[in-house]
């Protein structure tokens, strides 16, 4: 087994009770590193607290008290500038942190204009000019801010009250700090990605050194995938036989019928697809994917909603006619309505939520047909439409089952061919959710690609024992 050395004191590897602790460690460590590594669009965002939340009220109360205290100190006779000096010191540090290494002239200018020793002397003599310093700070912010912050800085120039102005300066500077962090992350993305891979692998190796059985669940996960791919073809063609055979990538059953041995790519692809069907109560989740389990559950929830959305659109189209569904505006509106109502699945039973979806969709179709001067739905057709849409809530519903299989086939193609090529030949019934599928496919591919880069050496060793002869497969495994 590939070993990344890093000396960390460990527990007795035979201690079975240590497994939950180790799993928690795997799950908690390097989440930020993993997110940056797999997400090229990763950004640090300002934490927005829910309106009326206790934490939000406490924070706002504390901030108000601080700025009120500053106002009292500056309004005193003589003024007390101690608090203002601390703020100016922090502002100076933030401004310096926004500079690039080559901006030496601006660095010297800020150091001179906000020389804390000189400002302290001015404060002791009662001559600290807070409005003048605030104006200088605003001018420097105008030079350093990203274009997206120009408007916010300009608004500060209209504030005459010194305390309100300082408060606004701090608020905008906090956004500028995030802009600089995100700029740095984007600039260093390749290095950060490589560091993320090496860091996560090293941390996992530390845990594996302490507990050699830490890959047991991963081995069973890959073994199951290989077994499924090796199973004989079903006796009759399934509902997706035509789509699968015409697709640019082979389905698991077609792969099994190939005379060539299973490839590591096929096994890993099947394994990753199985994770989207994982029972949340099953604790034997692959150890190499514990950090990604929450992300996979989010993808599974997104996949389920897309399955229902595509099913609703497919059923609706059979009642609406080509004219209505030939209108992109109508389709987009129907999608927006359905997506909004599907959000209630988290708080209501699917059957109950689908009744609302069914009624709203039927009403929209009925009204749109009338608006276009077409024959509106009869009461019998309306009842049939509502009934068929409501039945989509059942997982065994035939339309939902077929759509679910086709989305899984699309995701398999994404793993083998990439997202863009897979979008060129979408299975029937999925064209209306092409944009949503592209987003889902990209997230899934990014997650699995990063995971393979981190844990590829471990998968190599496991797959060598599952897919002999090893000599034939080594080149393929190495290319994961």
Automatic annotation (TrEMBL):
<dbReference type="GO" id="GO:0036126">
    <property type="term" value="C:sperm flagellum"/>
</dbReference>
<feature type="region of interest" description="Disordered">
    <location>
        <begin position="229"/>
        <end position="262"/>
    </location>
</feature>
<dbReference type="InterPro" id="IPR008862">
    <property type="entry name" value="Tcp11"/>
</dbReference>
<feature type="compositionally biased region" description="Low complexity">
    <location>
        <begin position="230"/>
        <end position="262"/>
    </location>
</feature>
<comment type="similarity">
    <text>Belongs to the TCP11 family.</text>
</comment>
<feature type="compositionally biased region" description="Basic and acidic residues">
    <location>
        <begin position="1"/>
        <end position="20"/>
    </location>
</feature>
<protein>
    <recommendedName>
        <fullName>T-complex 11</fullName>
    </recommendedName>
</protein>
<feature type="region of interest" description="Disordered">
    <location>
        <begin position="1"/>
        <end position="21"/>
    </location>
</feature>
<dbReference type="GO" id="GO:0001669">
    <property type="term" value="C:acrosomal vesicle"/>
</dbReference>
<dbReference type="GO" id="GO:0010737">
    <property type="term" value="P:protein kinase A signaling"/>
</dbReference>
<dbReference type="Pfam" id="PF05794">
    <property type="entry name" value="Tcp11"/>
</dbReference>
<dbReference type="GO" id="GO:1902490">
    <property type="term" value="P:regulation of sperm capacitation"/>
</dbReference>
């Amino acid at each position: 087994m590939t070993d990344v050395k890093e000396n960390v004191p460990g527990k007795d590897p035979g201690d079975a009770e240590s497994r939950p602790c180790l799993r928690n460690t795997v799950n908690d460590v390097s989440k930020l590193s993993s997110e940056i590594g797999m997400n090229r669009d990763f950004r640090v965002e300002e934490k927005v607290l829910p309106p009326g939340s206790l934490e939000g009220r406490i924070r706002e109360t504390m901030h108000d008290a601080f700025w009120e205290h500053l106002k009292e100190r500056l309004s005193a006779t003589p003024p007390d500038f101690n608090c203002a000096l601390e703020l100016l010191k922090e502002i100076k540090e933030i401004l310096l942190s926004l500079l690039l290494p080559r901006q030496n002239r601006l660095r010297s200018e800020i150091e001179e204009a906000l020389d804390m020793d000189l400002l302290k002397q001015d404060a002791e003599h009662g001559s600290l000019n807070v409005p003048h310093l605030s104006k200088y700070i605003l001018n420097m912010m105008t030079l350093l801010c990203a274009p997206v912050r120009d408007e916010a800085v300009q608004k500060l120039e209209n504030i005459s009250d010194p305390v309100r102005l300082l408060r606004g300066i701090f608020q905008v500077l906090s956004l500028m700090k995030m802009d600089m962090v995100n700029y740095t992350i984007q600039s260093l993305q390749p290095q950060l990605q490589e560091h993320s891979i090496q860091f996560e692998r090293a941390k996992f190796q530390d845990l594996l050194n302490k507990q050699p059985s830490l890959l047991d669940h991963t081995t069973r996960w890959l073994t199951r995938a290989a077994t499924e791919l090796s199973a004989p073809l079903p006796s009759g063609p399934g509902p997706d036989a035509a789509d699968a055979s015409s697709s640019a990538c082979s389905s698991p059953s077609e792969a099994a019928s190939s005379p060539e041995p299973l490839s590591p790519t096929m096994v890993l692809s099947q394994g990753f697809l199985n994770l989207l069907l994982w029972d949340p109560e099953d604790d034997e989740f692959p150890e190499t994917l514990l950090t990604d389990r929450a992300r996979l559950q989010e993808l599974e929830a997104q996949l389920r909603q897309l399955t229902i959305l595509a099913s609703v659109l497919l059923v609706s189209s059979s009642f609406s006619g080509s004219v209505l569904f030939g209108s992109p505006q109508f389709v987009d509106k129907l999608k927006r309505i359905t997506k909004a109502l599907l959000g209630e699945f988290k708080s209501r039973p699917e059957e109950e939520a689908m009744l609302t979806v069914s009624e709203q969709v039927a009403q929209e179709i009925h009204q749109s047909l009338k608006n276009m001067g077409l024959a509106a739905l009869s009461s019998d057709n309306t009842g049939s439409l509502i009934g068929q849409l409501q039945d989509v809530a059942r997982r065994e519903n035939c339309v939902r089952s077929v759509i679910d299989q086709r989305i899984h086939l699309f995701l398999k193609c994404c793993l083998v061919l990439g997202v863009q090529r897979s979008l060129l030949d979408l299975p029937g019934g999925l064209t209306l959710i092409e944009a949503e599928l592209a987003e889902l496919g990209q997230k899934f591919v990014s997650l699995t690609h990063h995971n393979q880069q981190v844990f590829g050496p471990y998968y190599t060793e496991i797959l060598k024992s599952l897919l002999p002869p090893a000599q034939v497969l080594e080149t393929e495994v190495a290319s994961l």
